[in-house]
Amino acid sequence: MQSLPSPRLVATDLDGTALRADGTVSPRTAAAFAKVEESGAVLIFVTGRPPRWMGGVAGAVRHRGLAICANGALIYDLHTERIVESHLIDVDVLAEVVAQLRANVSDLAFSVEYEGGFAHESDFRLGGLDRKGIGVVRIDRDALTDRPCAKLLALHPDMNADELHATVHDLVGHLVTATHSSHGGLVEMSAQGVTKATALATLAGRHEVRPAEVIAFGDMPNDLPMLSWAGTSYAVANAHPDVLAAVDHVTASNDEDGVAQVLERLYR
Fold it and tell me: How far, rounded to the nearest angstrom, does the alpha carbon of residue 83 sit from its chain's CA centroid?
């Protein structure tokens, strides 16, 4: 029996999927990524991370390839470490979204991801790499909507992410595309219609790759559009329940190199 051809494009989320819990690329996963590229297939990282968080990942994969960052809003060249394409929320929409959310949801705090940095209100609780302060500034409410941004983030101290996402979508889903990738009360908003799937479809088209020739890996709701678009979809075992219910296959967890386990079978 003849084996099926390996996918021509591999798209993978990073945090919670291809990266281990400590945020590192394991040697096994790095080797699997190298096998994909050595086979002639295209490897694309598709992440909610901003470009300023991509340095360690870029180094681990020897600065090869492109990354879709900020849930599809920014395309980042890992070789040159430059943003090569952006889809931003314009200031009028940004102002309207913030106004609507402030008027209808109490206790929200906001931050914005720009092409070249991050700004937050004083009551926005920083997490992860932002605690280190790299590219991070504090701004007042009036300055929050002064310029276009790649991503608007809303944080609530009590609501969980699923609940807050549903509320945000109902209030401003006609203005922006909302999603989430955390277990806390944090929702991420991109320009209307911008998702991981839209950016991936664009890049795949440039390589003349059809959805049926794509395999995608993810773990959180912000991965769902990409996983639905790809011909073959995988969740890692630690994924959100909605993701586990939506995919074709489930592999081992991120800390067990689940993505690498699949790629090793496909690209020998």
Answer: 15
Tracing tokens 């959310």 back to the chain, one arrives at 101
Model pLDDT for residues 21-36, shown as the tens digit of each residue:
998 899 999 999 999 9
How is 147-173 classified by DSSP, letter by letter? S-BSEEEEE-SSS-HHHHHHHHHHHHT
Q: What single string gives the DSSP state of each residue in 198-216? A: HHHHHHHHHTT--GGGEEE
CB 219 within 8 A of CB 235: yes
Burial of 22 (0-12, 13-18, 19+ CB in 10 A): exposed
User: Which residues are bridge partners to 232 per DSSP?
Assistant: 215
What are the structure tokens assigned to 238, written together? 């630690």
Q: Does the global pTM surpass 0.90?
A: yes
SS3 171: helix
Longest Cα–Cα distance in the chain: 65
pLDDT digits (tens, 9 = 90+) for 124-139: 988 766 666 666 788 8
Q: How far apart are CA 227 and CA 246, in angstroms?
A: 8
Rounded to whole angstroms, the Cα distance separating 113 from 130 reads 11
CA angle 197, 201, 204 (to 5 degrees): 135
Q: Are 190 and 72 in contact (CB under 8 A)?
A: yes
Cα torsion angle, 37, 39, 40, 42, sign? negative
Helices in 80-119 by DSSP H: which ranges?
Answer: 91-104
Half-sphere exposure of 96 (CA within 13 A, CB side): 12
In angstroms, the Cα distances linking 206 to 8, 70, 202, 209, 243 are 13, 20, 6, 8, 27
